[in-house]
User: Fold these one by one.
Assistant:
Number 1:
Amino acid sequence: MSTIDRAARFALLALLVTAVGACSSDSPSEPDGDDPRVVKQNPSFANDIQDVFTRNGCASSGCHGGAGGSGGLNLSGSAAYDALVGVMAVAEPVTRVIPGNATDSYLVIRLEGRQTVGNRMPLGGSPLDNIDLTNVRNWIAQGAQRN
């Protein structure tokens, strides 16, 4: 590994470490009794998956919001889908979302904490609860549709 590669990885790691609290939310890891969310077999990206990113602070300006999002990932509004599906991650040479393959998609790997570089997402926050994680996995497994 060249000195430039090491410097780039160190810079990325430093950026991620400084953003530790930016992606966290105050929501508990499991929903309360009044939570209307449910696990869906075929979740909608626009209605269900984007809501996961927004509700958990992932699409905020201090995390993956806007063109300058951490790791080059923009999860805000209309940019999120194009930044995820079929796009190679920056931290590791893994595709962010592989339609039909949730287990090997880097989004799920990071949400589950199975990555080899960096930390589980959302960074500094509670892991996604079963409803959110299952809906993300189901959306990818059903082909990661732009729906």
Note: The chain has one domain: 3-20+40-141.
Number 2:
Amino acid sequence: MSDARDVFRLCACCPSPCRRAIPADTAPQVETVTPSALSMIALAVIDGELDFDAPVRRALSRTEAARHCRAVCTYGLDVAGTVEAFVAARTVAS
């Protein structure tokens, strides 16, 4: 599954069992840094519901917590890496 949209759609709809892999001391502990939230934000950008502006880029840059989920993802997804590649591609295109 190489298409970023497919990765984001699958993750955004997942019940997020991977969240247990995020260490309690990872800062910040907020919903917007989970893989599913990052995926929803990216999907909103793709669908034109959010502008790819500075606040959105900042939100999508917070992939530290999502990196912890990669090893335990039920679907074997690397959401953090996919978000980072998505941001890099959008930044170059802007």
Note: The longest helix spans residues 79-93.
Number 3:
Amino acid sequence: MKVSIIYKDNEKDKVNVTVTYDDLWDGDVTLARVIYPFLKKYRKMYDRRKWYMGHPMDFASDPTKPDGPDNPDRFNEWLECLDKMVYSFEWIAKKRDWDGPEQKAFFKECDRLLKLHKKELEALSILDKERFAKAKKSTSLSSLKWDRRFEILQPVHETFWPKFDAHRQKIQEGIDLFAKYFGSFWL
């Protein structure tokens, strides 16, 4: 993907966006690679110029009520929202997955368990070939090897899937906040 925006003072801005078919393959990653640097720079602006940076009205104190603990300016909550957005888009842009930091351990554990059952799975693979060769075209057979693999890996799935779901929810929260406050990205 190529994005070029040339800002002109008294003329119409020049915007060129080129999207290739490769960009469409992992569209979430492609877009995250564009959104993440924007959000990162936008968030850094608050670190440098905090005292006169705007933030969404949802986080401002109510002007019809007196200042105080019952009517707080929730500026820091806006910064937390930005941090969640940055985390989500950074994770997708750099890691290219949604499962989280546990994914590597998941695959390592799967490999470890499958090695323990290597001979059994090879024998089932041979048996599958024989069964499929003898079966009629209209016959529906499941693979004994794959059924056994799922059985072996079930405990690993039960351990890691809740962790993956929690990370996906964390990423989705940042994306939802980005969508909710999309109109608030201005200085």
Note: The mean pLDDT is 88.
Number 4:
Amino acid sequence: MTAIAGNVVLAARSGDAAAFATLVRAETPAAYRLALSIVRSPAEAEDAVQDAFVRAWRDIGSLRQVELWPAWFRRLTVRAALDQTRRRPRVREVDLELAFNMPGREPSVHPADRLELIAAFDRLAPDDRAILALRFFADLEVPDVAAALGIPLGTAKSRLHRALGRLRAQMR
């Protein structure tokens, strides 16, 4: 976290709405990508991100250490996305834009293989998508994944291992 972000989090924690708006602008793109990788629907990802920010505004006073803001907010985003998946009957969608146009990434996989991977990922349970999204889409190390999910490191390792196994099984 940058020094300015620490000051902004401190100000937001003190009730400064403008500082919180700064956090919203800074965090929205990454939060949206993370939520989208879990809920798999752009509209529901937007709802999940909005829910995460509402929870953050409501609970930011409980954040004791400002340097924990990134992990704390990621955890709120994951929980909001998982809650979103549990609130609705599931209709599967495969977003072709995600398959062919992943921003900031070099296309290293053939588009047909990417579609197969996205379809397999989409068939996973939301909890599996969450842990895989944190590890591979958000590019977090396993201890940071554990922190984002609020689970012990060993639990994160075993869940990640099982989720990868289920993804491989879906690919077969």
Note: The chain has nine helices and no strands.
